[in-house]
């Protein structure tokens, strides 16, 4: 995936120590990471050559899809070349020397707070929403509020000099985030090299049973569709775009036939990328 001489950073949205930063470091341990304020900034960093790739969260097993990402991907001009499933382990972090009993407020991203409701209820804490987990950790280090803790990664605690009061405080043990790796150029594995995922968006015609007919080719050609989500287009209730993942390679005849049928009933189809399926998929199906 990575060129041997490449030394550009890997872009992500958030502050240093964010869970996206952790994903970048896991995927590209020898590369620097580039924190970006917004998802658009991370994508732009790749398109303008400031970063080699962007690692973007697309969905979480507890919180669901990540807002706005599916709207941004089709128009970014970038290609999905890989996926990564990262377990999420939240830590309750505070300033050094602060005891658990001193904490009255906890700050974090709204999803992190929602994923740690049991802890917040147990300790009777007041939850305050922050822009992101690592940003909350950075702010606590700056302000020095002894009565405030944050929920963030262990990496964020190390970066900002905070200590862990409780580890693995997420409510659900299965808490996992799926990330995609985006590149300026497509990088598809050869057909027959193992299980692959093809991601695409499409917009069906506004006629009765259009979606049913558009998807019929995937059923008749025995293609497993692992994801299908709909999004309103341009604020119109009669225009809907769909995002889909299928486990098949575009060079396989069965997917060629399915995509032909999809295009017949669709106004537009955009392939976002074909990439190796992460091993987590097989583990999740087997229950291990």
Structure description:
- The protein is α/β, with parallel strands linked by helices and 288 residues long.
- 30% of the residues lie in helices and 34% in strands.
- The protein has three domains: 10-87 and 175-183, 3-Layer(aba) Sandwich (D-Maltodextrin-Binding Protein, domain 2), CATH 3.40.190; 91-167, D-Maltodextrin-Binding Protein, domain 2, CATH 3.40.190; 196-286, ACT domain (Alpha-Beta Plaits), CATH 3.30.70.
- It has helices at 19-27, 39-47, 69-76, 110-114, 117-123, 133-143, 154-160, 210-220, 253-264, 279-286; strands at 10-13, 33-36, 53-60, 64-65, 79-87, 91-94, 105-108, 126-129, 148-152, 163-167, 176-183, 196-204, 225-233, 236-246, 266-276.
- Helix 8 (210-220) runs antiparallel to helix 9 (253-264).
- The model has no long low-confidence stretch (mean pLDDT 92).
């Amino acid at each position: 995936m990575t060129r041997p001489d490449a030394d550009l950073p890997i872009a992500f949205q958030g502050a240093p120590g964010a869970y996206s930063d952790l994903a970048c470091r896991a995927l590209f341990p020898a590369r620097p990471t580039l924190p970006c304020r917004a998802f658009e900034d991370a994508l732009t960093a790749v398109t303008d050559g400031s970063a080699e790739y962007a690692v973007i969260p697309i969905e979480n097993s507890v919180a669901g899809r990540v807002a706005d990402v599916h709207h941004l991907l089709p128009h970014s001009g970038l290609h999905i070349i890989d996926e990564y499933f990262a377990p999420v382990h939240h830590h309750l972090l505070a300033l050094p020397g602060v005891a658990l009993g001193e904490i009255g407020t906890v700050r974090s991203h709204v999803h992190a707070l929602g994923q740690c409701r049991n802890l917040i209820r147990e300790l009777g804490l007041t939850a305050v929403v922050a822009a992101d987990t690592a940003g909350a950790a950075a702010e606590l280090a700056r302000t020095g509020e002894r009565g405030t803790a944050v929920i963030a990664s262990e990496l964020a605690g190390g970066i900002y000099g905070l200590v862990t009061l409780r580890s693995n405080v997420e409510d659900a043990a299965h808490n996992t985030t799926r990330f995609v790796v985006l590149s300026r150029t497509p990088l598809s594995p050869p057909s027959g090299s193992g299980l692959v995922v093809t991601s695409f968006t499409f917009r069906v015609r506004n006629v009765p049973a259009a979606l049913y007919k558009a998807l019929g080719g995937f059923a008749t050609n025995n293609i497993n569709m692992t994801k299908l989500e709909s999004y309103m287009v341009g604020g119109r209730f009669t225009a809907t775009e769909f995002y889909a993942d299928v486990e098949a390679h575009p060079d396989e005849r069965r997917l060629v036939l399915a995509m032909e049928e999809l295009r017949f009933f669709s106004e537009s189809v955009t392939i976002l990328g074909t990439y190796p399926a992460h091993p987590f998929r097989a583990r999740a199906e087997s229950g291990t």
